[in-house]
């Protein structure tokens, strides 16, 4: 399983958990170095990061937790076309600005297309229970079980 998540994390500036181009570059790296596609499971994030930019901290959060924050602070989810991932911003009750980047079923669809494009073995999700519930309808729509 190749870890194609945490491109941006608490040690980096805010940004996508796994941008499309970065994910594809990671796949190409593994293939270039002799790993056959039939041996590769693409690691997919089921979570997101909520950066408190005033405190310079990031909180690892489930999709449900992030959607609760979005609702609480009336934030609008924005689709970032360069990374093919969603994000939103809000200001909390302490007047701290936040940037939230996460994965959802739409960003998952782009990663599943890479699984098909490179004929990879499949996917693994880190960590079950944190993901957008729509993952479970998107996955069988996009990839078929290999026997």
UniProtKB/TrEMBL annotation:
Report any Pfam family annotated for this entry: Glyco_hydro_18
Transmembrane intervals: none
Q: What are the recorded Gene Ontology BP terms?
A: carbohydrate metabolic process
Q: Which domain of life is it from?
A: Bacteria
- Start and end of every GH18 domain? 1-146
Q: Which PANTHER family match?
A: CHITINASE DOMAIN-CONTAINING PROTEIN 1, CHITINASE DOMAIN-CONTAINING PROTEIN 1 FAMILY MEMBER
Q: What is this protein called?
A: GH18 domain-containing protein
Higher taxonomy: Bacteria, Bacillati, Bacillota, Bacilli, Bacillales
């Amino acid at each position: 399983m190749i870890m194609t998540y945490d491109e941006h994390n608490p040690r980096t500036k805010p940004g996508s958990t796994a941008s499309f181009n970065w994910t594809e570059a990671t796949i190409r790296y593994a293939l270039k170095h002799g790993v056959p596609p039939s041996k590769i499971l693409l690691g997919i994030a089921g979570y997101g990061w909520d950066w408190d930019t005033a405190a310079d901290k990031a909180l690892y959060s489930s999709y449900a937790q992030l959607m609760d924050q979005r609702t609480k602070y009336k934030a609008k989810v924005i689709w970032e076309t360069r990374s093919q991932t969603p994000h939103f911003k809000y200001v909390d009750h302490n007047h701290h600005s936040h940037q939230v980047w996460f994965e959802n079923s739409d960003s998952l669809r782009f990663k599943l297309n890479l699984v098909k494009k490179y004929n990879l073995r499949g996917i693994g999700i880190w960590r079950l229970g944190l993901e957008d519930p729509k993952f479970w309808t998107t996955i069988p729509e996009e990839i078929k079980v290999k026997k």
